[in-house]
Amino acid sequence: MNEAAGRSLWDSVRPYLERESLAAFFVGISSGFPFAMIGATLTTRLAQDGIDKKTVTAFTLAFLVYNLKFLWAWVVDGVRLPVIGRLGQRVSWMLLAGTLVIAAVINLAMVDPQADIAWTATCAILVGLAGATFDIVIDAYRIETLKPYQLGTGSGMSQYGWRIGSAGAGALALIVAARSGWSAAYMACALFALPAMITALWLGEPSRHREASERKGIGEMWRSISGPFAEFFQRQGALMVLLFILVHKIGDTLANLTFRLLFDDLGFSNDEIAAWDVGVGFWAYLVGIFIGGVIYARLGLKRSVLLALVLMGISNFSFALLAMAGHSNLGMALAIGFENAASGFGGVVVVAYFSALCDLRFTAAQYALISAGASVVGRFVTGTTAGGLIEQVGYVNFYLLTTLRALPGIVLFWWMSRSGLVDSSMGTAGGGNDDDVETPH
Questions:
Q1: Cβ-based burial of 274 (10 A; exposed 0-12, middle 13-18, buried ≥19)
Q2: pLDDT grade, residue 342 (50/70/90)?
């Protein structure tokens, strides 16, 4: 019998109020803000400085460093910092990475895009590098702090924090820039790095952090690099798990990039897009995150992930229906609401599953590899095929195709669950082979 199914509603909600989940919320705030600094905020800054559109859109390449973070994530696991290393491996790296983010954001604050656009681009990439490193530490800290039964709610709280951090920093930047200029705006936003740093000092070293080995020479350094990969691929079913990581979100990513194109071609005004896509979408996403945490706690890992995959696939179909209906405010509100609720729900339970795949000796490196793999294929396929597909087959058939592209991930995870590969491939962060091994007391 699945113990999770017998829990009361209070047992499902209580993990949100525990200090480990609250810590996940605060580190999530700091994780979200560097993304905003080189995303919409920088786009607005460059546009207001009169930079041409081709140059502005080229700045999105700064995000690529987030997909490459697995290349240096082993350093966070394998290198002990001098002096502050006495505070603990995760705490010391949290302080260093947070300091680097603050310095990089302040550096970007001081540049003049009109005078030197190349240096501005370099500074944006430096923010991306520092932000990706901060993410590595934050993800490892979150996973090792949360107990197995808290992975769902903790992932949800982290995403709440991420949304608030990215949106809050973006809003603060606009408000300050309007009054004191962009340099002051970026400097003010640098303070968003502090919640994660303060949380690490307050909560201390994660209780579940494990040292891989004593590192004394070149051989041990090589084991720090190769160990996370070797440990993962030695597990039963590792290749199937990797295949699931690579393909599970292709359809969803393909669809998400094209929503604004659909809205424009259907004749929605900016006010309508703001009301339905931004307004309804934001709150639906937050509701989805909360539901995801509760469902994860009540149904367990396997059933909640499978349900999330199905819902995310159906959400793509809802946009095929919107494309058929044409300009419909009700249709747009329903499609956006369902898509964001499904994405929030899916984000929580899938992130919890990916977190559970990590070995606690190599949390930073393995989660960086998993998270990079989860997005890189979808982004590549989207960037190379989405626009051409829409021109060839139209919006309705395009969204039907993205729905079909969700099926391989659903079928693969169902088979992995039935065959026992989900359990046998689990890392120590998941608490062993049973997805319900630990419950709150």
A1: exposed
A2: very high
Report all structural domains of the chain as residue ranges with CATH numbers, in order of start. 1-209 (1.20.1250.20), 219-441 (1.20.1250.20)
Written as one letter, the residue type at 20 is E
Band of pLDDT at residue 173, cut at 50, 70 and 90 = confident
CA–CA dist 67, 51 (Å, integer): 26
pTM: 0.74
Residue with tokens 């639906």: 284
Are 360 and 208 spatial neighbours (Cβ–Cβ below 8 Å)? yes
CA dist list (Å): 272 to 79, 174, 260, 269: 51, 22, 12, 5
Of 24, 289, 16, the residue nearest 146 (C-alpha)? 24
Q: To which residue do tokens 């929580």 refer? A: 348
Q: Answer whether 304's CB lies under 8 Å from 287's CB.
A: no
Answer yes or no: are the C-beta atoms of 77 and 364 closer than 8 Å.
Answer: yes
- pLDDT tens digits, 415-433: 999 998 888 888 877 765 4
- Residue 3 pLDDT class (50, 70, 90 cuts): very low
